[in-house]
Amino acid sequence: MEFLLVAAIALIVGIGIGYTIWRNIAKKKADSAIAKAEKIIEEAQIKAKKILLEAQEKSLKILEESKNEIKTREEQILRFEERLDKKEKELENLIAEQKSKEQKLKEKAQILKNLESDILKIQEQKLQELSKVASLSIEEAKKELFANLEESYKQELFSRLQKLEQQGKFMLEERAKNIMVLAMQRLASDYTPSHTSYSINLPSEEIKGRIIGKEGRNIRAFELETGVDVIIDETPQVITISSFNPIRREIARIAMERLIADGRIQPALIEKTVTDVKKQIAEEIVKAGEAAVYELNIIGLHPDLIKILGRLKFRTSYGQNVLSHSIEVARLSEMIANEIGANAEVAKIGGLFHDIGKTVDHEVQGSHVDIGIRILQKFGVKKEIIDAMKSHHNEYPFERIEAVIVQVADAISGSRPGARRGSLEEYLKRLEELEKIADSFKGVKKSYAIQAGREVRVFVEPEEIDDINAKKMAKEIASEIEQKLVYPGEIKVIVIRETRITEYAK
User: Fold this and answer.
1) Are 237 and 202 a contacting pair, CB within 8 Å?
2) Residue 205: CB partners within 8 Å, gap ≥ 6?
3) What SS3 state is found at 93?
């Protein structure tokens, strides 16, 4: 019984202790949960404050940007209003000025009308007086008056017309000279003449044997690959490369110089070297065409057309490089067109492509002008440009003023002394012959051939040659030049008779 009591008490105490422990544990869990909840709430509050602050900052920034934008818009509107006010004032001034001009014109018109009326009245009065005096009818008197007026002023009108015609001709000639001189002064180019062959210096005579090779195989392989003739003669340490095709000739020259520098000359290396040089020349052709177009500021051309243009770098005409000549003609054409108010762009491009047919004229039938026309048509070049380039050798009629400009520019570029090898030789020879003919006349003190042989100035002894004989001498010199010389265009002969009288005051 006592044991049961103790057990019951122990159970009750255990239950109490267990309850107490459980309560403490529950309390701790509750406190921990409350702490976590409070911490979460606190963090949420902090985040909320942070978000609120960020929102406030963004709002302030947006508000500031809006204010700035509004201010900018207001300034723009103010400036626009100021411009409108200014334009409105200008328009009002223009309207007022126009009204003033209209009023002045009306006044002048009225004055002219009054003058016309007065003239008619005077004319009518004179006719009536003439009718009374001559007992003629009004119509007869009118015819008589007009006949008298026409007879009185015929000579004066004729003289004035002659003066105006001479003055206009002189002004046109001076204007043309000024345009030509201006264009030539603004463009001065140097020329590097090229021939149909190259001479290559060798480091030694022994290298000739390598170039020829065993039984001539090396020289045959080289000529086969390049399409040129290699001339090896008695000239010491020199070989000559000859070809009518300038591109082949240039390829052969570079390839031969590389082979000589390498020293190993044999068919396989010749083939490889020539192939490499051909690629190099092809790149140079493209670069030359692009450089020409860039220099002239021309855009929108087909790449293949630019490549064809670059081939002119290796083409010559009378020793003059055709690409340099074409660029010069393009510049001269543009300058002249600007001076006379023609289409400068059409003239410039027409001048650039006027000799484009020379790139393939030895490969295709036809003149270089016809070939050039077909090339330009193939690449869709405008008709006005083709019309501008096709008449420079008078093969086609001049359809545009730009065609005349291109022909003039081509003549200027080709006829400069020294521009072309043949021209330089002919120029020097013509100068000597002209001066020789002039000096052969009696009474000539000294003569000078100038203007590339297009003008001869002859100074005579004033004691031996008078004014009448000077005029006669000019005709005789011109006649002898016509008989003895062959020349393009015309040669002006000027005989100058100068009298100088000198006295000394002592």
Assistant:
1) yes
2) 236, 237
3) helix
Torsion, Cα 70 71 73 74, to 10 degrees, reads: 110
The residue among 231, 340, 254, 344 whose CA lies nearest residue 296 is 344
Q: Distances from the Cα of 241 to the Cαs of 216, 269, 271, 321, in angstroms?
A: 16, 19, 17, 19
The whole-angstrom distance between residue 72's C-alpha and the CA centroid of its chain comes to 45
Give the position of tokens 């003055």. 167
Tell me the C-alpha distance between 51 and 224, whole Å. 87
Q: Is the pLDDT score of 37 beyond 70?
A: yes
Which residues on neighbouring strands pair with residue 335, listed in sequence order?
Answer: none
Residue type for 253, please? R
The first and second tokens of residue 440, run together, are 């052969």
pLDDT tens figures, 306-355:
888 888 887 776 667 788 888 888 888 888 888 888 888 888 888 888 88
Q: Output DSSP code: residue 203.
A: S
């008989």: which residue's tokens?
483
Measure Cα distances from 432 to 80, 424, 439, 444 in Å: 75, 13, 10, 16
CB 372 within 8 A of CB 390: yes
> Residue written as tokens 């265009």?
489
d(C-alpha 25, C-alpha 49), whole Å: 36
CA distance 270 to 277: 11
Strands of 387-480 (E only): list them: 444-450, 455-460
Strands (E), 103-237: 197-201, 229-231
Distance of CA 21 to the CA centre of its chain: 106
Give the chain's radius of gyration (CA, Å): 49
Pairing of strands 229-231, 238-242: antiparallel
pLDDT tens-digit series, residues 80-120? 888 888 888 888 888 888 888 888 888 888 887 887 787 77
CB 213 within 8 A of CB 266: yes
Give the HSE-up count for residue 308: Cα atoms under 13 Å, Cβ half-sphere: 22
User: Which conformational region is residue 456 in: left (phi greater than 0), alpha (psi within -120 to 50 degrees), or beta?
Assistant: beta
- Classify the phi-psi angles of 366: left when phi > 0, otherwise alpha if psi is within -120 to 50, otherwise beta: left
DSSP-derived secondary structure for 230-291: EE--SSTTEEEEE-S-HHHHHHHHHHHHHHHHH----HHHHHHHHHHHHHHHHHHHHHHHHH
